[in-house]
Amino acid sequence: MLARIVQILLALAGVAVVTYAGYLSGANPPTVGFGFLLAILIIASTTGFQAAAAASIAATLAFNFYFLPPVGTLTIADPQNWFALFSFLATSLIGSQLSAQAKRQAAEAISRQQDLEQLYTFSRSILLIDQGSFSRQLATRLAEVFEFEAVLLYDKRSDEILRAGPADFEGLEDQLKEAAQFGSSYTDPTGSRVIMTVRLGSEPIGSVALQGRRKPDAVLQGISNLIAIGLERARAQTLTHEIEAVRQSELLRTTLIDAMAHEFKTPLTAIKAATTALLAAAPSQSDTEILKVADEEADHLRDLIDDAVDMARLDMMTVDVQPLETGVGQLARDVAFEIRNGDGRVSVAATGDLSAMVDRRLIKLALKQLIDNALKYSPPGSPVSIRVGATGERVEIAVINEGKQIPESEQSKIFDRFYRGPASRINVPGTGLGLSIAQRIMTAHGGSLTVNSRAGQTAFSMLFRRAGEGTAE
Question: Fewer CB near the last or first residue (10 Å), C or N of the chain?
């Protein structure tokens, strides 16, 4: 208010200077009128419309009193001078209005340019923020670039509120969370304090509270959009680091598996060589039987190591299928024999001479998992049967065991990695990987693995193409 009064007084002083100069010089009225008009335009361009309007009225009165006859009075004898006087007043007012408007538009253009520069600077700063404490740095850069007194940034995903700026908000946490939850916004009457929702598309992902110089709605919307991009970039960087950590972990795991397999197989190879050499030396009959057992068990241990390594590798990489035409019935009998269940619980029934295009090693591994599960989850001494037959144009291997029914709510989950039913976690040892790996093997063959469980009997069925019906995918 005081600054405006000072501007008006200075404008009136300018009119007084022009009046004094025109009166002393004895200039004619048109010349003095142009002098007044020039002064008013200068005042309008440097101060504003109010000061220019006051100067226009003062100049009109001075022009009438000092330069239009009769001089020294506020009356005009010649009607033409009335027209000239009002034309002068209108011209000065319009000129001052246009000048003030041009000044105001120039100021608005400068303000918009500053807003755009701040938005651009903020967008660049988002790209330069380090991964550590990204959200906190985002709030700090926001306060610094736009010179806000205080900033509160709420990240809905992490449920974290970050503060920045020289001042501080108090008691706005609930309003911030409400804005992020329901998409509401708030602006105080002065416009200096704003709470708005941060959206990614149509989904609210956070909210922000700002305190400082009032910003246009378009700038506030731009700030909200840039914050959303920043929070999403932070999330993407976090996921990238997590993926890289998992990749490094899997690489280390592969290295360890290969190293362990090598360490196990090195002494096993020596044992196998020793038993082979001793058997070739024609020992006594009793020694021969012992050596044969040792030799067979060495082969068995080697197969177990190979299966364990294959299981670990299949759990973390793409299944590489190398299909060959294979007799399915004989394959099932080989697996049943390798299980070496001494109580004779496992039996095989094969219908016809069926063959399929499969990776023999992988199918054996999957079938071993099913048989092992059947033995663990059936009552002690109860039989486990393997039935091989044809179902339409497909070969089916079904592993059937007796025991409790698998609840329907669990049947869709038992093929998930690491999933184990509530009862089995306590009573049956295992990792929850066997069925998951068996299903991956069947999927890689273009086949399927299903379960059919009812009271007293559970059957797992492997279905894949018969030979001549196409190769594995």
Answer: N
